[in-house]
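Comment thread on ticket #2218

A.B. wrote:
> Attaching the input chain for the structure job we discussed in standup.
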Amino acid sequence: MLIQSMERLATAWPMVIKRSLANWKLFSSVVLGVLLASAVMAGTVIFFDSLRDIALDKALAQIDDQDADILMQAEKGPTNRQEYGKVSDRVNSVIEGLLAPYLNKVTAAGKSSTFFLTVPGDENSAGKDNSRAFVAYVPDLEGRIKIIDGVGMPPPLGKTSSDGILILEAIVPVHEAGILNASVGSRFSLVPYWDDALPYVTVEIVGLFERATPADSFWIMTDRVLMASAGSSFKTLPLYVTKSAHMDILGAALPDMVSTYGWHLDIDLEKINSSNAVDAKENVRYVDRLLGSELNRYLMKTQIDTSLEEYDTRLLFTKLQMFVVLIMIALVVLYYVVTLSSLVVEQRRFEISQLRSRGASASQILAVFVLEGGTLSVLAAVLGPLIAAGSIGLLGFTPAFSGLSDGEFLPVRVTNSAYGMSVLGALLSFSALMIPAFQASRISVTAQRSESNRPNQKSFVQRYYVDVGLLLVGIVLFRQLTEQGSMAARGILGEVVVNQLLLAVPAVILIAGAMVLLRLFPLVMNLISRVFASRLPVGVVLAIWQMSRNPSNYARLSLLLILMTGLGIFAASFGGTLDRSSQDRALYKIGSDLRLESVSINSMGVSRSITRS
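C.D. wrote:
> Ran it. Output below, let me know if you need it in another format.
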């Protein structure tokens, strides 16, 4: 049975195509409308994807690569491999599960608690000056430095003095060594501020180094984690040893010492795109909350989540504003399809009545329109995204978008979502084509002749006051939008919530207002004919009488003209709304016309107010 039906459709399809081509002048306008509907629907996705890619590139370009990297640190004691393994395993598992897709590599380092620094024999005066020190290890340090004096990284050998004090060998940066007048062979005492097994540890400097490439991102860990607690008011001497010396020798000698462990997550910005940007932001913040609740004195430093948050917020408001315009465009295009389809069907009413008089059923007549509309809708669904992608790409050469694309094609991607929207547009167009066809297929010969002699004065919309009801709904929604002040609002938890219904307010008011004007159209024409009949030429009076007697055809075209005019006026005035919205958001974010940040007076002691002279 199914095979027979498919054979019948295959046989009837060429006849339907020939029938459509016979009326190619009017039918070509319908084809254009259906293609435009699918292209507009697909273009919403393609256009927003293009804007998202451009906006993300602009947002990420505003932050330095080092600021985009993630630095994490946590404290754990006592200092040994077992305790370090607990922290390291947990951090690495979280990174692997949530952040690995955006990373190039992960570097781990560690440092001891800060010691009081004194010369040997002066341990009792420890802490009375601003000399401090810490012991640290950084993987691959030897490959990133140049030895200025002495030797490189010493082997992890723990020596002790005659009185049982640990003697630790280390290398130090030449700049910090110069501040404390240290050189190769110098010895210092590291006095812990806490009570431990040893009163102090002796450290001997065996090498001085400087950074081979100071701008290398490798030094982020040193500058922002290891040296973060040094402060400008202290003379801090960083002492670098191997990981084994830190864990197995120093940690064993001071069993109560707490160490700070750090991780440098090198973010690859090329791996963050508009498709995963929101997930990347949420994952970064979730990692911060998760590890912050599990690790002691946990801290994360990065600007990537803030940058992605600003990008997401800007995109949300831009998306809402553009959706309003695109919804109106889509509705106007669909009405265009309905109008032209109605004209095509009315042109074929006599042909349909002849088929009914020769025994054709309503379903057989409707099948012809279904084949015709289905063929057109399938072609539109396939070609719509390609047409939209090409048109959007060419926008890069226009003055409005040349600043974003540098005078080249806008970046476009035809995704599955674009084809999904194109199919939706094709289905809506197919439904629009079938509405007048379904009505025409059920008209008998007698009814067709009766309607041709005396057409219906009112349509379904006017008979049941659908236009008035739609206008009332638009007024209610407009009042709600006025009271709310925006289509987006803050939820209970502070998240941005979008009222999807309010997005259609401009389109609803525009369509309802136009339909109410059409209700007045025949009355106005009748009034004009009565008042000016004696003053106007005969041809003009006959035309006015015809429009007042049979207003349906003229009403459809008038409604289309009203919608296009209203859409043009709305789009022209909407540009000022977008500019004002951007300015208001910027002023709200800054909070003042002039703002000073990072202003401090007195690095030590009690601060004084900068507002007092």
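A.B. wrote:
> Thanks. Noting for the ticket: The longest strand covers residues 201-211.
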